[in-house]
Amino acid sequence: MNPEISDTNPHSFQAMEEKIKALERENRILKKKLERSYADRQQLEVNTERKENLLRNALEELKASQASLEERQEAIKELKRAQTQLVQTEKMSSLGRLVAGIAHEINNPINFIYGNLQHLQGYTKEMLATVEAYRQCAPEVDEAQLPVDAEEFAFIACDTVQVLQSMQIGATRICDIVSSLRNFSRLDEAKSKEGNIHDGIDNSLMILRYRLESNERRPAIAVQKNYGTLPAIECCHGPLNQVFMNLLANAIDAIDQQEYNDRADRLPEIEIATRTVSEAAIEISVSDNGPGIPENLKSLLFDPFFTTKPIGQGTGLGLAIGHEIVVQQHHGSISVDSDAGWGTTFRIRLPRYPGAPLA
Amino acid sequence: MLKVCVGHSNDPDSEGAISEVLDRCAKQLGEVSPQAGILLAAVDFDYAHLLAEIDRAYPGLELIGGTTDGEISSVMGFEQDSIALMLFASDSVTIRAGIGTNVSKNEATACEAAVSMALGDRSLDDIAFAIVLPESLTTSAAAILRPLERALGEQVPLFGGLTADRWQFERTYQFYKTEFHSDAVPILMFSGAIAFGYGVSSGWKPIGNPGTVTRVSENVVHEIDDRPAAEFYRNYLGDRPPSSDYPLAIYETDSKNFFLRAPVGNDPVDSKSVTFFGDIPNGATVQLTEASRTEILSASEQSVSQAIERFPDTATLKGALYFSCASRRQILGSRTGEEYEIARASYGHELPSLGFYTNGEISPLSEARERVCYHNETFITLLLGES
């Protein structure tokens, strides 16, 4: 028997009592902890169930909100498109009115200048012939009494004819520009009409002619026209002219970004080519040998308000509007090919008449 | 000289527990007589016996206390089903206790009585701060805090926690000297050479879609988005009733800032409304919130850091009190003890500490904001010292 717990020893009895007391205390604590542990486990199961529900439902909401986000993104895209159209309509209608107004104002005076120049040339010719006849008939007239001597008169007579010819050339050019402007400004013509695509391209080139000339940074831009034989196309010519104008202006802008430094091997050039793709469709391409478009920007080119030009120089609307006119209005297609460092080609395909296949 | 000591026992037997606690306190106090104390106890204890034994050991002790959802102390760390006692002895600090009873019948009368009793012959200007441990289930915390703020005036910071009952939401108890009540507001008011610093942090984050409170009566929300409020919870938590570990974020007008209001969780299963631990304004934008254990513990650390930062450099740190939300314990589970461990590690030395898991926390949010604020899901640190 353990002497410590001998019942004859009062110390060991006390020790035993204390030990029993301590064991009883431990037992109480353990029992309570067991009860608590069971209650906690039950609570934990309930908590887990709640958390599972919460996460499941939050996930469903997330999916729903993602779907709604996609819808909103689509709506924003649609709004941007509508905004582009509005901007285009407003911009083009005011620009068109302005151009048409100026063309009309110039047209009348230039017409009587151009028309009267031919009469003036005839009158001048007759007047000079008459003076010459007088001179022949009255050789005794003292030249000192005349305002000009015979030599000077011969120069004036020759130069007057040349001045009038030069005025005739200038007036013809003004008439051509006015005519181009008037054609170009027919932007509000929403109705499809049969017409010649080449005329629209030539009008645009005529308006942009001053930009093709040489300047201090580069030589003149050579324009290669490889026009195929195109049938008459039923389309809205005014808006299409605007597309050609934008593509040509972009091509000139691209070339202007290039450094030339007297490089004879690569002179600035724009090629405009047209061809029939099928009986029902035609293709127009505008190529430049500018610096090209980086691959990562190609997908953004037709987005409204996207521009690589410095602030103030580009609205980011030209190609977006072009896309709108070609794809939405004419059910055609517009695409871009570009090799960085070598140049860019924009291709437009148009059906010959509304609803015709493009391929 | 301020002396703070703590005793803690997890013996479920009331006699064994209180004797262990008093023995421990006596050893720390030596010959010094304590002036005041705070007793925290789990439910299931014989409160009358606990209080009588304390009174026998320290007659006339200015004592308050209450039941909890879990106890914290520097003796045992986090425990459940235990009792913990903090005693204050000082000849330079005056601490007086008071109580207001039947608070659900008349909040103003009960609060005024409690403040007046604890104030004694002191002026409110002398009071450095007060600790309150109010009832949580018979009335809304906001209804108790409003008259309490009025009675204390604008200068007295108020800290504390709402008494709890081990997540049963049936009945909580409050202690005052040798009395225990179940619908009361006990308060302890400190004056003299006492310094303090505090911190408040939560860790809960919004989840799911927001809604608008369309019908509410104080702390009972009837409708959210014109649908029964219970449905708002059911959409997320399934058929389980709303639980206080999933509080609502209540957004301030036109702001991303929010405060939290936790559901009491004692509404009948078929109830369409949801009762909260605090008032919710009509028209408020609300959103369900949830928290992970890591976020909760990181917030606890933040609360302690704030308190240390606010504690005056010139004062000597003597003790710490913690009021942590019962919902934090629910989510922390076996990691609950880490809350105290994080706090303990922040001081660099052993600091007599006492705290409990509450049904709602009380503390000013910051000096710039309103003087006192009622919180849910937070961890409040209150550091005490001698100035």
- C-alpha Rg of chain B, in Å? 20 Å
> If you compute it from the alpha carbons, what radius of gyration of chain A comes out, rounded to the nearest whole angstrom?
44 Å
Strand content of chain A: 5-15%
What gross morphology of chain A would you assign?
rod-shaped
Task: Determine the structural class of chain A based on helices, strands and strand pairing.
Answer: alpha+beta
For the secondary structure, the number of strands of chain A is 7
Q: Termini separation of chain B (Å)? A: 10 Å
Biggest sheet features of chain A:
5 strands, mixed
Major beta sheet, strand line-up of chain A: 2-4-5-7-6
Low-confidence stretches of chain B: none
| Shape annotation of chain B | globular
**Would you give the CATH topology of the domain at 195-359 in chain A?**
Heat Shock Protein 90
Please, what is the average pLDDT of chain A?
84
Tell me about this structure.
The complex is a heterodimer of chains A (359) and B (387). With 359 residues, chain A is of the alpha+beta class. Chain A has a domain at 195-359: Histidine kinase-like ATPase, C-terminal domain (Heat Shock Protein 90), CATH 3.30.565.10. Chain A is built from seven helices and seven strands, in the order H-H-E-H-H-E-E-H-E-E-H-H-E-E. Chain A has helices at 10-137, 150-184, 197-207, 209-212, 237-256, 295-298, 318-329; strands spanning 193-195, 222-226, 233-235, 269-276, 281-288, 333-339, 343-351. In chain A, a hairpin with a 3-residue loop joins strand 6 (333-339) and strand 7 (343-351). Chain A is rod-shaped, with a radius of gyration of 44 Å. The mean pLDDT of chain A is 84. The radius of gyration of chain B is 20 Å and the shape is globular. In chain B, strands 14, 15, 16, 17, 18, 19, 20 and 21 form an eight-stranded antiparallel sheet that branches. The longest helix of chain B is centred in the last third of the chain and has 18 residues, at 293-310. Chain B has helices at residues 14-29, 47-57, 107-119, 141-152, 229-237, 293-310, 326-332, 337-347, and strands at residues 2-9, 36-41, 62-67, 71-73, 77-79, 83-90, 93-100, 127-132, 158-161, 174-176, 179-181, 185-192, 194-201, 205-206, 211-217, 220-224, 227-228, 248-251, 258-261, 274-275, 285-290, 316-325, 353-358, 361-363, 373-375, 379-386. Chains A and B meet through helix 1 of A and helix 5 of B.
